[in-house]
Amino acid sequence: MIYVALFGWPVVVAILFSRQDVPRATAAAILGGYLLLPHGVGYNLPVLPTYNKNFAASLSAIIAITLIAGSRRPNRAKTDVTGEAFLLPGWIPHSKIVLLGLAMIVVGSFATALTNTSSLNEGGRILRGLSIYDAGSMVLSAGVALLPFLLGRRVFAMPHLQRLLLAAFAIAAALYGILALYEIRMSPQLSRQVYGFFPHSWTQHVRGGGYRPVVFLQHALWLAIFLAMGFLASLSLALRNTRHRTMWFSISLLLLLTLILGKSLGAFMLALAFGAALLFGGAVRIPLIISAATASLVLVYPMMRGADLVPINSFVSKFESIDATRASSFSFRLRNEDMLLEKANQKPLFGWGGYARARVYDQEGRDLSVTDGEWVITIGEVGWIGYLGKFGLLCLPIVALFRHRKTWNIGPETVGLCAMLSINLIDLIPNATLTPLTWLIAGALVGRVEVGAVEDQAPKSQERERNGMRAPSLDLGAAARETRPRTGIPRSGSVTARQLPRETAAETEPTTETPALDDQEAENRYTRQTRLHVRRRPDTAAAPKTNRKAPS
Q1: Does the N terminus or the C terminus of the chain have fewer Cβ atoms within 10 A?
Q2: What does the angle CA 370 – CA 342 – CA 433 come to, to the nearest 5 degrees?
Q3: What is the rounded distance in angstroms from the CA atom of residue 217 to the CA atom of residue 36?
Q4: Coil/strand/helix, residue 122
Q5: Would the pLDDT of 368 be above 90?
Q6: Which residues pair with 367 in a beta bridge?
Q7: Sorting pLDDT into bands at 50, 70 and 90, what band is 145?
């Protein structure tokens, strides 16, 4: 059943892309692959990385989008709910900061292998060195992990598509919450019943006379942070969507109840704190400030931790006043972090690599370390270069959106994604809950940054056109050549940094007597009012003027 599910998922993805539009199919492919396929198993392919659920879902979606984008025939999968598709061009981001982060991850992985070729002797335990083959494997593994990031950036950059991503998260979390409630009542057994194995230690999922659900994920902590992200997604939609507000509020209450019954205190507190910010902090400003502050603190946390600027003792004292058992566990984690950081500082740039070389051993070769947090694992294995590349891609998009919140017209759907990513970033400090969904959201926010940069270029483009210079453009729709929709929206091909032509803007200007707009009409108005130019298709465009002189 395991290999049937893994190798059958590309077929499912192909069916999704043949029947649905690109954004819906992409969201279903990534969410479905992460939530439904078995964890911790895979098939070792020659040369390529291990074929597991993340590889199957991401690569299948990228291949499907590439085939659809390269096809010239009108296809149902190239239109979205508004009748217009806005896929960013190509798979390579345009931002130099993002490209630097990607290069630090990929090149840093290769450099890690080259600087750890010698074996280690830890109390009689021999840890093998890394080879050129390991270098290639590490680079490919890093590339596979970044596939959801590239998907999110290309597919979910526009605000209305980010709203669709929020809806996909909320619905998937609601359905998964029902399965979690079943395991809370009957014990975590779905993975054993469907795939024949349990992915983790059973004793860690028995707490307080009850059970902590796992479903098909690797641990209850991973499930809890996903449900918390789904809670914020449904709450963001409930605060904006007047038509289906009751449904989204009901989903958010269901997920909050599931977090309480699942005994996931950390995820519950994060969901409650950021949910309160969304409810009482306004649509954009306060939640975005909190998200940007969170991202900044997470990015610099290892530096502060190494410089003893984090008040560790006060945190432990507060935990002891709440729960002595949790305080003891928290103190144990902190001691492990200190040991691992001391070991990582011996190879600060590129780390120790894999094969448990970054762990701490005693004189008899016994492993003394417990690696929980994603940040300390990353620094130990790939060094500060890999850490800054990885966490820079995760944190800096939120900071960039906060800096330009006024000029880029940041909407509540983008703020909702920032809040979801922020609680996941906080959870990366004590846990290693970095998943394809984390990269998908980060990629969507990077795409929104690129769209905002295009909007910033619009006034400069007008000035250049008035001076007779060619305006720079970013083609945001070359990958999706849509047909004319039935709703009467003009045919669209690509988006540049120039404004709409005056006559087109006059035709699409809404009257003051129109009734209240629903979500689709509001999004259409947003698209018309953005400082983006919709270029006509070549077959409908007027013939270009020529400067050739007639022969005498």
Answers
A1: C
A2: 40
A3: 8
A4: strand
A5: no
A6: 361
A7: very high
Dist CA 519 CA 200 (whole Å) = 43
85, two tokens = 């598709």
Distance CA 425, CA 418 (A): 10
Mean of all residue pLDDT scores within the chain: 81
Predicted pLDDT of residue 125 = 86
Q: Does residue 467 carry a pLDDT above 60?
A: no
- 72-81: per-residue pLDDT in tens? 344 443 444 4
Vertex 250: Cα angle to 247 and 255 (nearest 5): 130
Would you call 48 exposed, middle or buried from its count of C-beta atoms within 10 A (0-12, 13-18, 19+)?
A: middle
In this prediction, residue 466 carries a pLDDT of 54
Q: What are phi and psi of 534, to 5 degrees?
A: -95, 110
| Domain boundaries, given as residue ranges, for the chain | 1-87, 89-156+282-454, 180-278
The Cβ of residue 19 has, within 10 Å, a number of other Cβ atoms equal to 11
Q: How confident is the model at residue 500 (pLDDT cuts 50, 70, 90)?
A: very low
What are the tokens at 525? 């108005």
Give the CA angle between residues 458, 448, 95 to the nearest 5°. Answer: 75
For 143-159, give one letter per residue: b (16+ CB within 10 A) or e: ebbbbbbbbbbbbbbbb
Give the whole-angstrom CA distance, residue 47 versus residue 157: 33
Stated as kind and residue range, the H or E segment containing 149 is helix 147-155
Distance CA 71, CA 67 (A): 6
Nearest Cα residue to 482 out of 157, 22, 18: 22
**Cα 375 from Cα 391, distance rounded (Å):** 8
Of 234, 223, 232, nearest to 258 (Cα)?
223
Contact status, residue 9 vs residue 52, Cβ threshold 8 Å: no
Q: Where are the alpha helices (DSSP H) in 428-546?
A: 436-466, 502-508, 519-529
Q: What distances in angstroms separate CA 515 from CA 242, 511, 521, 522, 527, one per listed residue?
A: 14, 10, 10, 11, 18
pTM value is: 0.82
Angstrom distance (rounded) from CA 491 to CA 399: 35
Strand 120-122 and strand 125-127: the pairing is antiparallel
**Mean pLDDT, rounded, for 375-387:** 95
Give the least confident one: 47-61, 136-150, 212-226. Answer: 47-61
Q: Which residues pair with 316 in a beta bridge?
A: none
Distances (CA, A) of 379 to 352, 429, 453, 478: 9, 12, 32, 39
Q: Quickly count helices (H) and strands (E) in the chain.
A: 19, 6
Tell me the one-letter amino acid at 117. Answer: T
Q: Are 368 and 376 in contact (CB under 8 A)?
A: no
Contact 88, 476 (CB under 8 A): yes
Give residues with Cβ within 8 angstroms of 140, minimum separation 6.
48, 49
